[in-house]
Design brief:
By secondary structure, the protein is an alpha/beta fold. The protein has 2 domains: about 10-130, Response regulator (Rossmann fold, 3-Layer(aba) Sandwich), CATH 3.40.50.2300; about 145-235, Arc Repressor Mutant, subunit A, CATH 1.10.10. About 50% of the residues lie in helices and about 10% in strands. The protein has 11 helices and 5 strands; from the N terminus they run βαβαβαβαβααααααα. The chain has helices spanning about 15-30, 40-50, 70-80, 95-100, 115-125, 135-140, 155-160, 165-175, 180-185, 190-205, 210-215; strands spanning about 10-15, 35-40, 55-60, 85-90, 105-110. The protein is globular, with a radius of gyration of 18 Å.
Length: about 240
């Protein structure tokens, strides 16, 4: 007899009741999800995290009291096993960058469709990075407000990443998993993970989402990301 999988435990944090209720209704119609609670501000979100220890938290970044970014930083520091998905709108690019750097798994638009939402939560629960292609396409366009803000220039960073590392970083930005990257490049998943470790070290980050955030901030990724062909030589 097949063992029944445990439901994914989800917490919802947004200061708008209609958003919380809408997300709750969607999750209640999905199979394999358990809503452990919701909160309307950062302080309540931290209390909810401590009390319920959810697998995934859907988190708005614009909230009263303790804002979403500070809430995210504290959750990432105190409960690193909680996989946070940022809830965002189309005009919050700057907050998305900062949220990814603070430890979020990825982000979703608040008007996202039902199946996309459920798939995103499943992805985050597995500890994988969630980067929606339609949002990444917009963020990959050079933006003077986000590119080149750090003390290290894009040219300096770009020069330290190998061509293969840049290809893998671009694939990560498209939301591809290690298995998919390995198949496209005809290398092993272990080799992909090794390249990712090198990328993290060079960029000073600890996750895929953070690596993409830094790459976007510093305009490391090209406007048109690398796409693989199946005759790529292994390196």
């Amino acid at each position: 007899m097949k063992e029944q999988q445990k439901p994914i435990r989800v917490a919802i944090v947004d200061d708008h009741m209609i958003v919380r209720e809408g997300l709750r209704l969607i999750l209640e119609t999905g199979e394999g999800f358990e809503i452990v609670g919701d909160a309307a501000d950062g302080a309540a979100a931290l209390e909810l995290a401590a009390r319920t220890d959810p697998d995934v938290m859907l988190l708005d970044l614009r909230m009263p009291e303790i804002d979403g970014l500070e809430t995210l930083r504290r959750i990432h520091a105190d409960w690193p096993a909680i996989n946070v998905i940022i809830l965002t709108t189309y005009n919050e690019d700057e907050l998305m960058f900062r949220g990814l750097r603070a430890g979020a798994r990825g982000y979703l638009l608040k008007d996202v469709g039902r199946e996309t939402l459920l798939d995103a939560i499943r992805t985050a629960a597995r500890g994988e990075t969630l980067l929606q292609p339609e949002i990444m396409a917009r963020l990959l366009v050079p933006n003077s407000s986000t590119a080149g803000r750090s003390g290290t220039s894009a040219t300096e960073i770009h020069g330290t990443l190998t061509e293969r590392e840049l290809m893998i970083l671009a694939a990560v930005a498209r939301g591809e998993r290690s298995k998919e990257i390995a198949a496209a490049l005809k290398i092993t998943e272990r080799t992909v993970r090794g390249h990712l470790t090198n990328i993290y070290t060079k960029l000073g980050v600890d996750s895929r989402a953070s690596a993409v955030a830094v790459a976007l901030e510093r305009a490391i990724l090209p406007r048109e990301p690398f796409f693989f062909t199946h005759d790529q030589p292994a390196k």
